[in-house]
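Team,

Forwarding the record for the chain on the shared tracking sheet. I've put the sequence and predicted structure together so nobody has to dig through attachments.
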Amino acid sequence: MGRLSKPVSASEVVSYRLMMPSDVNPAGNIHGGIVLKMIDEVGGIVAYRHARMNVVTASIDRVDFFHPVKVGDLLILKSAVNYVGRTSMEVGVRVESENLTTGAVKHVGSSYMTFVAMDKSGRPAEIPDIQPVTDKEISRYDEGAARRRARLGLLRRRS
């Protein structure tokens, strides 16, 4: 019998946070580290919901910021599992900002993160597979599988 499989929708998360003056860097924009922390948190929530056990961040792929985020903007983080291995999973996070006065929404950045599920002894644990259903989910799954192969190839070359 194969392992349990779950739909993408079972663990996806959309998170919102109003950007405040305490989040600003010296340039007057929201500090990139604040956004990175939020990306890791929402990605971790999605991974935990999928695995239903503790997870650790194994890697965060490159993060590019396309637009600055300003005080008063609503930061929107959309996150879902893209691909699942035996003990690890790729989670995608899309970051948008909404100007609450005008309603204008900008794509601020995106990231792909790898999380590893951990058992109570702190060892990697097997997790449920993922069931991509929509065309978008299937595409994300295929792209996630390709990124995983590339990551593993890079790790082999480094060792």
